[in-house]
Design a protein that fits this description.
Layout: H1 2-22, E1 24-31, H2 37-46, E2 52-58, E3 63-70, H3 75-84, H4 96-100
Antiparallel strand pairs: 1-3, 2-3
Length: about 120
């Protein structure tokens, strides 16, 4: 019985180690429209999920830098998360109703120089 328990523990550890090796941290950058510090807070907050290890949006360059676990999540799914909270990306446009609810300072579409 003791050998069976030991074998089970070894198999459990080996399978978790194998899973950890399958997921790797990947870094990416992509453009996300926005204007201000409130946009920055909103965008970085929506990226706070267990698969994302790092997310930082620069309001000057409009670039989101992320480090995430692949293949657990994809860049497209992260871009979609940004669009869900009102921010356009190269691949996904935010819903007009969601965009309209953003604070006035965040309405980047209304000021073409701030995209």
């Amino acid at each position: 019985m003791k050998k069976l328990v030991s074998l089970f523990v070894v198999l459990l550890i080996a399978s978790s180690f194998s899973y950890a090796q399958e997921s790797k941290i990947v870094e990416a950058e992509f453009k996300v429209s926005g204007n201000c510090g409130m946009c920055k807070s909103r965008l970085e907050k929506v990226m706070k999920i267990k698969e994302v290890k790092f997310a930082k949006w620069d309001k000057t360059t409009k670039i989101m830098k992320v480090a995430y676990l692949s293949p657990d999540i994809t860049v497209d799914s992260l871009k979609h998360r940004a669009a869900e909270v009102g921010h356009d990306t190269d691949k996904f446009k935010a819903d007009d109703a969601v965009y309209a609810k953003l604070p006035k300072c965040c309405l980047y579409r209304d000021n073409p120089t701030t995209h």
